[in-house]
Amino acid sequence: MDWTRRLRLRHLHLLINLTDTGSLSDTARMMHTTQPGLSKWLKELEEDIGAPLFERHARGLRPTAMGQLLVRHARRMVTEMDRAQHNLEALQEGSSRTVAVGTSPASAPSFVPAAIMAFIAQHPKARVEIQESTMNSLLNKLELGKLDVVVGRLDNYQPRASLKSEMLYEEPLRIVARPGHPLAGRTGLGWDDLYQYDWIVWPQGTPIRSKLDMALTMAGRKPPPYRVESSSQVGNLWLLQYSDMLSVSSERVARHFTGRGLVVPLDIRLDSGEGYVGMCWRDEVHPDPITLDLLQCLRETATLVGH
């Protein structure tokens, strides 16, 4: 018998809770069922699949490789059902569906908003949700179906089997400081000049931090004095405004905030190799037409913004 025909939405929640709690008793209590009944259901499911989904230990349950795979699908299906309900309610209220976009600070100030404005012009009733975070966090949400598209720096992106990706434009890095900083307006700066000041840097593992580390490696330099590690664009701008600290930024982001009198780029070149901003979306057999429209708006905006 095809075991997938017997699965219901409640069963997906059971699998997810078993993984999260590692406990039959806790899951039974949370899902308002009995532990013997839950144990019997799990045993029958494993027999139908022909492989164990959880390893039994003294401390509880731990998903096997097949269990992890099934639970990943379960999480994605539960998320899709939640979003389907949300979109159906929006249609009943006279609105269109909601498109969820994840973006890193490297593309948030002007590029992504410009693309969304173009998208809204095509779909006046559509709703758009924007989430800003680090790329790894956003890509995980994309795989789970919590986001439709992720836009950001793809410098150290590792291809994922469930996702498609596309480069949109090249994006070098710039060192920035507040207007009026002692180094602002000086020409021919070198690393020794920069080492005289504290730095605000992005967390390890983020694309911008990786490119900074690469630039330091290529220059044969040790890390400068990192005073603050932060992934908050607003917080970083505030700290720059009221100190002599330095930071690193994508060129378009630096240009955006320079035009508003918030920062100035310093006259030093970072040799860190090419950097790119791109977009990722799920590789689906039947892609959502409205998501395809958003991807096209991003492509068209990439050719216009900053050129």
Largest sheet: number of strands, sense, barrel closure:
5 strands, mixed
The figure for the number of domains is 3
The coarse overall form would be: globular
| Euclidean distance between termini CA atoms | 59 Å
- Provide mean pLDDT, rounded: 88
Percentage beta strand:
15-25%
Say what oligomer this is: single chain
The CATH architecture name of the largest domain reads 3-Layer(aba) Sandwich
The beta-strand count equals 12
CATH homology superfamily of the largest domain: Periplasmic binding protein-like II
Order of helices and strands: HHHEEHEHEHEEEHEHEHEHEEH
Low-confidence stretches: none
Order of the strands making up the biggest sheet: 4-3-5-12-6
Q: What is the name of the CATH topology of the largest domain?
A: D-Maltodextrin-Binding Protein, domain 2
CATH class of the largest domain: Alpha Beta
Structural class: alpha/beta
What is the CA-based Rg, rounded? 24 Å
Estimate percent helicity: 40-55%
Number of helices: 11
Family: Belongs to the LysR transcriptional regulatory family.
Keywords: DNA-binding, Transcription, Transcription regulation
GO molecular function: DNA binding; DNA-binding transcription factor activity
Organism: Zobellella taiwanensis
Any key phrases for this structure?
single chain, 307 residues, alpha/beta, Arc Repressor Mutant, subunit A, D-Maltodextrin-Binding Protein, domain 2, 3 domains, 5-stranded mixed β-sheet, 12 strands, globular
